Fold this sequence. Notes:
Blueprint: E1 9-14, E2 19-23, E3 28-32, E4 44-49, E5 56-61, E6 65-70, E7 75-81, E8 90-96, E9 100-105, E10 109-114, E11 122-125, E12 130-135, E13 142-147, E14 150-156, E15 165-166, E16 183-188, E17 195-199, E18 203-207, E19 218-221, E20 227-232, E21 238-243, E22 248-252, E23 258-262, E24 269-274, E25 280-285, E26 289-294, E27 300-305, E28 310-316, H1 334-347, E29 350-352, E30 355-359, E31 366-370
Antiparallel strand pairs: 1-2, 1-28, 2-3, 4-5, 5-6, 6-7, 8-9, 9-10, 10-11, 12-13, 13-14, 14-15, 16-17, 17-18, 18-19, 20-21, 21-22, 22-23, 24-25, 25-26, 26-27, 29-30, 30-31
Amino acid sequence: MEERSRLCSVWLGSETGILKGVSLDRKQAFNFCNTRSLSREQEIRALCWGDSAESELLVGCLDGTVRTFSTEKGVFTEARSFGDPQDGGYCGLASLRGSAIITCVECGKLRVWREDSSGPVAELDAGRNVCRMRQSPADPNRVATGGKENGLKIWDLERPEKPLFTAKNLRDDWLALRRPHWVRDIGFIPDSDKVVTCTGYHQVHVFDPSTPQRRPVLEAEFGEYPLTALSLTAAGNAVVVGNTHGQIAVLDLRKGLVRGCLKGLSGGVRALQSHASQPLVASCGLDRFLRIHSLEDRTLQHKVYLKSRLNCLLLASRALQKEAVGGPAEGGAEQEVKEEEDEVWDSMEQVEEGATKRKTTGGDEVKKKKNKGGD
């Protein structure tokens, strides 16, 4: 049990269509793809496990295909098309009882697919401009959706005719003006019926479908910029949120207060995931780094540069079994990042008082030019 709860590796999907695996034990990163056949249409938008043993990884791409990756063999084993690229990219991907896949695209089409069927066995319309679909960890048949001007909805896939819960819009502001809503990410609070969302208007909302109230039972705000991702902590009494300016904060869901902030990011956050049992949270985004912070003292535990803008991530308790063909990913791990940064600084122009030093590409020749007013 202790081995299963241990964080060994992280899987990430990039804008370039490369599936990246990071081994935290070996401090190495690997690319799993054929880089010669990559295109923008293969951008990875969603990741999820295909089974509870973490032996299969489902990869949702922008072109509407879902590729199956074997973590034991280190290769892609299957690819199926589950939609039209014109419907938008995947905003959610989940596995249902091991033999079915749940997909949701930006236009709002949420479908359930089985291996032995050519078409969806169930389909529902979640509304336009969906930004996120999440599956309940406690009940795999229960999912939640939300997006821009598309409030939170909770669905039962066994009865997809209408949602179990539809959130009501926020109360008008003090000027009696309508307040817009924009759900960016969703999380199911464990051991309860409550659902937490973060919005494009830097808000965190908690809804309780077990009560007659359809508006949030808790409202909180963080920062001034749109929130893009959230993840509940292992205890379930706090949520980690990230925004478009690389700011990450931990909010208490009981009082709606900020417990603390995680530092070090320099680009918008695309994905967050807290570990199921350890006080750790992983983040990735536009600055091309995977970072893992401690939620106890908020220190940075791991930092890996992956050279591609990252869209999604998935924590794994299994170690990487096989390296990708072609060897380590560009950038590798922490030591290689430090060396790259040093090379960048060494190649920059140096300016000193009274003189200007310039290095050539090779770094062997140094030219020195005195200012006209110098001694």
